[in-house]
Amino acid sequence: MVTASAHTDGLARDLAPIRVNAVCLGLIMSEQGATMGDAVIKGLAANLPLPRAGTVEEAAEAYLSLMRATYLTGQIVRVDGGGSLV
């Protein structure tokens, strides 16, 4: 299995000097996420270090930060409320 990290690393090397970064999203309350229902969302968020769903605006901030940081390449930003820690 090839991970997002391997893809991001490989593309960053192969496409340099073009910058390649990735955003890995967790539970984000997008239009699609809202269709899951409150009980499901609360259940998924309950075990997160930040026990709530993220907003679309919070996810967008990660993309904007990566675009502004012109000396970053090959990085993955996790916007998952700490889900990757548990």
Helical proportion? Answer: 40-55%
* Mean residue pLDDT: 94
Question: For the largest beta sheet, what order do the strands appear in spatially?
Answer: 1-2
Largest sheet: 2 strands, parallel
Content-based structural category: mainly alpha
Strand content: 5-15%
The Cα radius of gyration reads: 15 Å
The 3D shape can be described as elongated
Order of helices and strands, N to C? HEHHHE
How far apart the termini lie comes to 21 Å
Q: Which ranges are low-confidence, i.e. pLDDT below 50, for 5 or more consecutive residues?
A: none
Total helical elements:
4
Number of DSSP strand runs: 2
Summarize the structure.
The protein is mainly alpha-helical and 86 residues long.
What does this structure look like?
The protein is mainly alpha-helical and 86 residues long. Helices cover 43% and strands 9% of the residues. It is built from 4 helices and 2 strands, in the order H-E-H-H-H-E. It has a two-stranded parallel ribbon. 6% of the residues are buried.
Keywords:
two-stranded parallel ribbon, single chain, mainly alpha, elongated, 4 helices, 86 residues
What's the topology here?
Layout: H1 4-15, E1 22-25, H2 31-34, H3 38-45, H4 56-68, E2 76-79
Parallel strand pairs: 1-2
